[in-house]
Amino acid sequence: MKWRGLQMLEEEIADEASKLVSQLEEAIQSHVSELKIASSEAAQPHALKEVTQCFTGKSKKLRLESKFEDKIHSRFSKCDSTDRSREDWSGWSTDARLHALTEEIQVLVGMVKKMEEDYADALYNSLFDDQVVDEEDEIVDNNDELQMIGLSDLYCQVKGKLFEGNFFQVLPLVGMAGIGKTTLAKKIFEDADVVKRFELRVWVRIGRRCRLEQIPQRILAEVVGGADEADERFLRESLKGKRYLIVLEDVWERNVVYHLHSLLSGLRDNGSRVLLTTRLQQGDDDVAIRLMNKDESWDLLRGKVFGEEPCPNLLEKLGRKIAENCDGLPLTILGIADKLSKFEKTPTLKYWSEVAAKKNHQIFKDVYEEISKVLRPSYDYLPQLLQLCFLYMGVFPQNYEIVRSKLVSMWGVDGFLERNVSFDATICLEELVSNSVAMIYQKSTGATSSVGVKEIKTCGLHSSFWHLAIREAREIKFCQALISIYDGLDKEILIGQHRLSFHNNILFCIKNVCEVVMDNCASTTRSLLCYGPYHQYQVPICSGLSLLRELDVLTIRFYEFPMEVLGLVELRYLALTLDGRLPASISKLSKLRFLIVGRHFVIKSCIDRSYLPVEVWDMKELQHVSVMGNDLADPCGALLENISTLSNVSVWSCTKGVLKAVPNIGKLGIRIELAPNGGGVPLRCFDHISCLGKLLSLKCDVVNPGGGPRLGSFAILPSSLMKLSLSGLGLAWEEMSKIAWLPHLKVLKLRNYAFRGAGWRVEGSGFPSLGSLLIEDTDLVEWSVGSECFKRLHRLTMKHCYKYKKMCGEFGASIRKIGFVDCNEVGMLQMKEVMPWLWIEWRYHLSFLHGETETQE
Fold it and tell me: What is the pTM of this model?
């Protein structure tokens, strides 16, 4: 329960904040009435509404809200750790505290005035938004051959869909800004075969300001040469009896496919098509425009810079590197090529070497700044919550592959979304992907083409969006990425920042940086994150950050636990690499939810076991514990009911007492290090796992499988298990019968001789729900499959199965794909003979055959 003095102060501050926001809204209204803009009066209310909402509901408002929130927390964050009684504080006068905030409020008023001016300009520009030329096409070269680089396969695919059957179909071309959607659509629209097939072809620009109900009017205006009202009946009459192709360019509505099917009902049986370009994923019929590969990127860069002339041999290697650094986005490649061709009449080796050496070269910064006007609408379109989540992804370095589970967890504990009770971090990530502002790097095993958030393994931002994110985050004081030493020492940049992310080894001057941080943003910083190169020597951590919620320093090696961390009483997320032991006083961090302890790259002795302090069991808010190289002490009857993930624990932590103390765990990861000399009794890590009735995912890895003692046999596994990953256990294939019965198991991964032996026989109705199976590094020779087994298996992958030769039986009709990587060709051909309808992908490294390192498919 909050103390009465704090409640009164919060209420009065909230009133002050509300007054300031109201003043700002009135200021915007006043500016609108004064602006003499040459546009129709009908457009002004709509533009006013959008600009007002953009300010009062989104990131600019964050400046005001966060200022007040910081002041409340900074003055009272230490209350929980004091010995004062509630009675001592209940009679506090709020006058003194409010007086101390007066200066801050005056600063905010000044900010409001500045923001008034900014939004007057934004309002003026927004009224002419529909008249802006599509910058994506404006930059594309007129050379037809250059235009189609990277799009030829999609061109044939989409063109083919236009000629398939006499049914009506809507085909969305989906992709991020500048990827070539409009270029592809125009090429198809002007294709000679397409012109012959469609009696009526209509190109309609939609844009951000066009609402869903206005689309019929836009189409009708192009069909009949103008329309004052959106008469849907008249539109259908105008299209009736004609085979038409309608291209809707730059659509910003989600339900447009459904709306078009409803609108054009009764006109569907003559093979008419609607092609639309959009940044927003629409559904199963989406045609995703991909980024260019390395060769395509180079072809586009070379063609733009040199035209028909050949590239000098000395520049080709550098040019390929420059093209690669554009990360496959045509808009970026063309921008870089334009600047390279204009820098000097004759390209120089020195200049190209400088550009190729650094992805943050000034030429890249200039191009990203220029193309931000094309990317910015994607950011502006996002609701406030998604904007904040997008900006947060910028705390990670450029091209960083972010693990989905880590990102979602850090969103949850950061605090900027706590007031939004209905917020679901997992759905938020899916929305960012579907809005084409976030990218999927890796999908989980078994993921389908229509990827949900649960199937995203790693994700991130394209370089172009990353630059937009760090710039916007810096401007609104959401986060400062410290990329160079100068960023860490720039007082103007650091003042009032809420999150600090170290992307480089400025740790060598960490003392000076800490001093600047303490002087300029100690009372506002909520996150301190280090994602630079691994640092093997312990450095001091900025202390006195009273609001700090997240501390991620896994890239720094600590020989002893940094005791200054214990003063960060607001900490929710702690991740560090530690050679020493956690102190018993770690329990002072009573609000901690995530405890992640890594260790240096040394496998410790199995004899010298290290236990976490028993006081960890007093930390009731813990949700995720990863303690590599440490064992959990006996809880002595304590319970941690909030823990959902326990990873990197040793076999000695899998006792009945420990597992019963975490009854709600959904994910368990066991890391086993065997003694190098062998011997001893078999290790038993599965005996008590059956007591975990809510366990969904289990991973067990033997990191040095050549040692001993060996593991004992399987016990009963929880029937709730959906994902199982085993590595290095060396069990007999007969033990698989204890896994085969699991009713909900969907993903099974067997790596590094998880099971040994020449034969594996699966009988009965084994693996009834299994959808994805991976077998990697095994001595399996023959595999026998019963007719009722693997009924739902849709993907099988076999890697490094050099002895595998034969399969008896066959899989059910659900199997769609089998992949072989560096396997015995005899086994692959025999499986193809048994099941000739299968799509079998065979991939091998030439080193497997010839001692080379290239990859072929």
Answer: 0.83
